[in-house]
């Protein structure tokens, strides 16, 4: 098993975080991200979290009760509502951008948290990160009663990096596989028949715990969690080449070591 360590510069300055999606999981995770910011400062971190939130959607009546919104919020932009609320309550100076993230954009940040529900949006995140400076990509995805939280890295030619969700599940970056039925639910009851009331909170809690662990210890022994509410089970993804290989991913370092072994050479310690 490999232990992943946080880049040293993230211990010396504010984390620059971009959250894409302020709906079910995004609205559940953002208040926890603000709590993490406050905790970081209280524990001596020099900057906490600087956050930008992307979402072009407005609150609908069916969002009330299922997402982090109230009846008075209906018709207003999700990103603006959540960011303004947290800025007022927690003293943050976060930004809201009422638009979609495009693959032609360029992101320069330490981490992107993807709370999106389409493959097209995931692909846009990875493309925008590659155009920028790379960094961590925390994917928070779910189906009706299950989901995954995977922290990976988007970096060019890194010998050994955490695989991101597209490395482990390439199909999740294929827009052609997106479902055609994207019509909104007619009522909250209709929405609840399609998706558990609990699943977004469950995914957000796992993402929050992973980020807290990364900050508090500076290391990670696991980089993902799979959640299955029907079975009442969570399964972690260890930071381990063997575990990644089961998903078809092999790091550049592992490939190099395999080539050296095949040629009879000595693998560096």
Structural class, by secondary structure, is: alpha/beta
Annotation field: number of helices: 8
Mean pLDDT: 92
| CATH architectural type | 3-Layer(aba) Sandwich
What do we call the CATH topology?
Answer: Rossmann fold
**Order of helical and strand elements:** EEHEHEEHEEHHHEEEHH
Q: Beta-strand level of the residues, as a percent range? A: 15-25%
Instruction: Give the strand tally.
Output: 10
- In the residues, how many domains can be counted? 1
Instruction: Name the helicity range.
Output: 25-40%
Query: What is the spatial order of strands in the main beta sheet?
Result: 4-3-2-5-6-7-9-10
What is the CATH level 1 assignment?
A: Alpha Beta
The Cα radius of gyration reads 19 Å
**Uncertain stretches of 5 or more adjacent residues:** none
> For the record, what is the CATH homologous superfamily label?
NAD(P)-binding Rossmann-like Domain
Global morphology: globular
N-C termini distance: 14 Å
For the largest beta-sheet, the strand count, sense and barrel status come to: 8 strands, mixed
SSE layout and pairing:
Blueprint: E1 4-5, E2 15-20, H1 24-42, E3 49-54, H2 78-90, E4 95-97, E5 108-114, H3 119-131, E6 134-142, E7 146-154, H4 165-168, H5 188-194, H6 199-217, E8 219-220, E9 222-228, E10 233-238, H7 241-245, H8 252-262
Parallel strand pairs: 2-3, 2-5, 3-4, 5-6
Antiparallel strand pairs: 1-8, 6-7, 7-9, 9-10
What does this structure look like?
This protein is an alpha/beta fold and 269 residues long. The chain is built from eight helices and ten strands. The protein has helices at residues 24-42, 78-90, 119-131, 165-168, 188-194, 199-217, 241-245, 252-262; strands at 4-5, 15-20, 49-54, 95-97, 108-114, 134-142, 146-154, 219-220, 222-228, 233-238. The strands form two sheets. Strands 4-3-2-5-6-7-9-10 form an eight-stranded mixed β-sheet, with helices on both faces. The longest helix is centred in the N-terminal third of the chain and has 19 residues, at 24-42. The radius of gyration is 19 Å and the shape is globular.
């Amino acid at each position: 098993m490999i232990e992943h360590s946080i880049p040293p510069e993230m211990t010396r300055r504010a984390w620059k975080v971009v959250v894409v999606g302020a709906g079910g999981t995004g609205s559940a995770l953002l208040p926890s991200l603000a709590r993490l910011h406050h905790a970081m400062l209280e524990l001596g971190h020099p900057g906490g979290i600087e956050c930008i939130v992307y979402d072009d959607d407005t609150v609908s009546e069916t969002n009330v009760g299922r997402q982090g919104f109230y009846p008075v919020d209906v018709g207003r932009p999700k990103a603006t509502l959540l960011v303004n609320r947290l800025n007022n309550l927690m003293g943050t100076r976060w930004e809201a951008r009422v638009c979609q993230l495009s693959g032609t954009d360029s992101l320069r940040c330490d981490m992107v948290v993807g709370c999106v529900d389409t493959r097209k949006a995931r692909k846009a995140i990875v493309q925008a990160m590659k155009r920028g400076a790379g960094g961590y990509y925390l994917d928070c995805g779910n189906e009706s009663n299950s989901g995954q939280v995977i922290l990976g890295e988007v970096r060019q030619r890194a010998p050994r990096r955490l695989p991101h969700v597209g490395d482990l599940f390439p199909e999740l970056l294929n827009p052609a596989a997106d479902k055609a039925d994207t019509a909104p639910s007619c009522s909250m009851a209709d929405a609840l028949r399609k998706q558990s009331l609990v699943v977004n909170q469950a995914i957000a809690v796992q993402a929050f715990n992973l980020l807290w662990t990364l900050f508090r210890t500076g290391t990670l022994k696991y980089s993902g969690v799979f959640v299955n509410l029907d079975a009442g089970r969570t399964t972690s993804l260890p930071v381990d080449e063997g575990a990644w290989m089961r998903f078809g991913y092999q790091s550049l370092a592992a490939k190099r070591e395999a080539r050296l072994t095949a040629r009879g050479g000595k693998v560096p310690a």
